[in-house]
Amino acid sequence: MLRRPVAVFAIAPWAFGDVFPADLLTRLRQLVDIDPATTFTSFEGPEAAAALAEANILLTGWGGPRVDEAVLAAAPRLRAVIHAAGTVKARVAPAVYDRGIVVSSAADANAVPVADYTLAMLVLGAKRVFTRARRYAAAREDGPRDWLSGDGTGLHDCTVGVIGASRIGRLVLRRLRAFDVEVLLYDPHVSTAEAAALGVEPVSLDELCRRGDLVTVHAPALPETRHMLDARRLALLPDGAVVVNTARGSLIDTEALTAACATGRISAILDVTDPEPLPPGHPLFALPNVLVTPHLAGAQGREMRRLGEFAVAEVGRFVNGVPLLGQVEPAQLPYIA
User: Fold this and answer.
1) Could you tell me where the DSSP H helices lie in the chain?
2) For a pLDDT cut of 70, what percent of the chain falls above it?
3) CA quadruple 109, 277, 220, 125: dihedral, nearest 10
4) What pLDDT shows up at residue 1?
5) Is the pLDDT of residue 2 over 70?
6) DSSP 30-50
7) Which residues pair with 6 in a beta bridge?
8) Left if phi > 0, otherwise alpha if psi is -120 to 50, otherwise beta: which for 297?
9) Does residue 226 contact residue 254 with C-beta atoms inside 8 Å?
10) What average pLDDT does the segment 289-300 reach?
11) Which residue segments constitute the domains of the chain, with CATH numbers given?
12) What does the record list as coiled-coil region(s) (predicted)?
């Protein structure tokens, strides 16, 4: 009889139950031998060593340890690392690829709630919801009712600038098709023909900033993208523009953004910051035209099940010799989030 593949969990207990609920565990155990009562956040110690010695598949997730040379030395039978979360950039060492081990990520599944969050923030940002809500809450009975004016608000007929045709950026582009908006795209890796297929106008980053009523950031964090929205480019934005960042905080110069928003000329909605988290009392928290959320756009609560569904399906594809949908090649690592 052929030996069934052996899989091992390496994911934090706080995430495990939401990512792998009981029915998904049942489905997984039909594919591989796995102990759902054991999940590792460290590969040190005899229990982890015994598990690694037998493992053909590592099912990793948030809070799991990095798969490095020491882990590989303890896991001679390892053939696949399937990550039930987003990026694997910091999760796997180059030696994993040197060993010919297949790496997969559920980043496509995690991109869905980020894109949904982004679209929601574009709609609310275009309505000036956060600024007007704060004015409403602070209003006096005998004071001006200045929260009511909707002049110049609303997403309809806006120009939306999308920075980066990443997996999340492309989902945002797809969602924007439901709205009567002009969409600009800055991505130096997207050809004119591909931009046409996406239904967007390709432009330079400076032009995107000049024309964008709303600008949403979806580029990877690379040396060349650090502070791509700096003081000069923020100054190009039209009066009343809204900047949304659900990518990485380092893409925007925090000091320059704080100064620009403090004038009231532009607004910002930030799910990521640099540094992250911002220190207590940072000026961005107090500005009425800025909303800072604690990196919550990705899968949360009920949304986390989608990651487990993707990972279990990937295990099935791997076991049956079918190409993986979330396979991450080493050449992709520099360009992912």
Assistant:
1) 13-19, 22-29, 46-54, 69-74, 94-98, 107-126, 129-138, 167-176, 192-198, 205-211, 231-236, 254-262, 283-286, 305-319
2) 99
3) 80
4) 40
5) no
6) TTSB--TT-B-S---SHHHHH
7) 33
8) alpha
9) no
10) 96
11) 7-105+301-335 (3.40.50.720), 110-292 (3.40.50.720)
12) none
Strands across the sheet containing 214-217: 201-202, 182-186, 159-163, 214-217, 242-245, 267-270, 290-292
pLDDT of residue 139: 84
Token digits for 154? 């609303």
- Give 156-194 pLDDT, tens digit per residue: 999 999 999 999 999 999 999 999 999 999 999 999 999
HSE, CB side, 13 Å, CA atoms: give it for residue 152.
8
> In Å, how far from its chain's centre is CA 235?
27
> ∠240-126-210 over CA atoms, to 5°?
45
Residues across the chain: 337
Task: Give the pLDDT confidence of 105-153 residue by residue, as tens digits.
Answer: 999 999 999 999 999 999 999 999 999 998 888 887 777 777 767 888 9
Provide the 10 A C-beta neighbour count for residue 79: 15
Catalytic positions are 248, 276, 295
For residues 82-114, one letter each, b for 16 or more C-beta atoms within 10 angstroms of the residue's C-beta and e for the rest, the string is bbbbbbbbebbbeebbeeebbbbbbbebbbbbb
- The encoded tokens of residue 145 equal 């009712």
